[in-house]
Design a protein that fits this description.
With 364 residues, this protein is of the alpha/beta class. The protein has a single domain, classed as Alpha-Beta Barrel (TIM Barrel), CATH 3.20.20. The chain has an eight-stranded parallel beta barrel with strand order 3-4-5-8-9-10-11-12, surrounded by seven helices. It binds flavin mononucleotide (FMN). Flavin mononucleotide (FMN) binds next to strand 4 and helix 11.
């Protein structure tokens, strides 16, 4: 069956996606303790690359040691990690997909348990939840050094042979903390006005661009509005941030919507996609959030996205882009048992992480 979903797409960088189906970034806690890529993590990703995804993102990979937010998180903070990353990049490329590393720093959500130091963020603030560690407010030197860490990680990804990177500015991690009206209470050039709150992200984009070759793809992931631990975000401000990014030359904007069938919180009669589409002519838009079927994916394109990113559907259906060409095919749905996940090339650490997500794992 012919669907726009299976047509190629050329990004502003010049990179060509063979189709418009992406593997969303998925933390899987399968790396070695020191952040090196493991065989389990490689197997999980390459199975999806071979299953036909046109764009394959790694999980959030931390750009500096003290940005680590998860146990056994993939790292890209040191050249010692590059050789295994290079093997992954070659595998993804060999399968015909564009490989993208998601660059991440946890900020307030990088616990001292993992990093050995007090977390930092835009400002010192508190949240009423168990285990919350009050962050210290970053000095300007620390912000500038972290911009440098993002750029160094982008350069490392390019050298390792990846097609690009995505700056993770969604979900309330450090770049999103600076964008936030509530978490960022600074009064210097990194806080206050939206332009100031967006400076960390924009400078990270600029610096990453400067350190990577022409043709290297650089995208940004944003949460349009509050969700979960991301707060202080306003839809109109996020659209404005997207505009600022696009005037810097953005290869894609990735919207993390969590449920593409829902309209925005701010304007219940409006969906986010047409709003971002209208604000960003010429910038490809990726969108993720509860897409399981071909019809749902096509509806996302209709709303204005260029690429549909699959998270949970890709965990359960590694060959989704191949199988979905058949309109009679029905994707597998959760819950699955650990043994069934093992057959889909998820290692035991990933399966135990999936217990955090409702109804994903069945008791055997
Ligand atoms: C197990 C799991 C891990 C995730 N890890 C990340 C991550 O590392 N970075 C990120 O930006 N989003 C992450 N997400 C969010 C997904 O990329 C995606 O946006 C979300 O799951 C909604 O899409 P879906 O309904 O197709 O799963 C994760 C989601 C899940 C379920």
């Amino acid at each position: 069956m012919s669907s726009r979903l299976f047509e190629p797409l050329t990004l502003p960088s010049g990179a060509v996606l063979k189709n418009r189906v992406a593997l969303a970034p998925l933390t899987n806690q399968q790396s070695h303790e020191d952040g090196t890529l493991s065989a389990d993590e490689e197997r999980w990703l390459l199975r999806r690359a071979r299953g036909g995804f046109g764009l394959v993102e790694t999980c959030a990979a931390h750009v500096s040691r003290e940005g680590q937010a998860f146990d056994r998180q993939l790292g890209i903070f040191d050249d010692a990690l590059s050789s295994r990353l290079g093997e992954l990049a070659a595998g993804i490329r060999g399968a015909g997909a564009l490989g993208i590393v998601q660059l991440h720093h946890g900020g307030v959500r990088a616990p001292s348990r993992l990093t050995g130091e007090q977390p930092w963020s835009a400002s010192a603030f508190t949240e009423e939840r168990e285990g919350f560690e009050v962050p210290r407010a970053a000095s300007e030197e620390l912000i500038e050094a972290t911009i440098e860490r993002f750029a160094a990680a982008a350069e490392r990804a390019a050298r390792a042979g990846f097609g690009g990177v995505e700056l993770h500015a969604a979900h309330g991690y450090v770049l999103s903390q600076f964008l936030s009206r509530t978490m960022n209470q600074r009064v210097d050039r990194w806080g206050g006005s939206l332009e100031n709150r967006a400076r960390f992200l924009l400078e990270s984009l600029r610096a990453s661009r400067q350190r990577t070759p022409r043709g290297f793809t650089i995208g940004v992931r944003l949460s349009p509005e509050n969700f979960g631990l991301a707060h202080g975000l306003d839809l109109d401000e996020t659209i404005e941030v997207a505009r600022m990014l696009s005037s810097e030359g953005l290869d894609f904007l990735h919207l993390s919507l969590w449920d593409v069938s829902k309209n925005t919180q701010k304007y219940p009669e409006k969906h986010a996609l047409p709003l971002f589409r209208a604000a960003l002519p010429g910038v490809p838009i990726l969108a993720a959030g509860k897409v399981w079927t071909l019809a749902e994916a096509e509806a996302v394109l209709e709303l204005g996205a260029d690429v549909v990113a699959l998270g949970r559907a890709a965990i359960l259906n590694p060959e989704w882009p191949e199988r979905a060409r058949d309109p009679a095919w029905q994707p597998r749905r959760p819950p699955l048992t650990p043994a069934e996940y093992a057959e889909l090339d998820l290692g035991p650490h990933f399966v135990s992480y999936l217990h955090k997500f409702r109804d994903m794992v069945a008791q055997p």
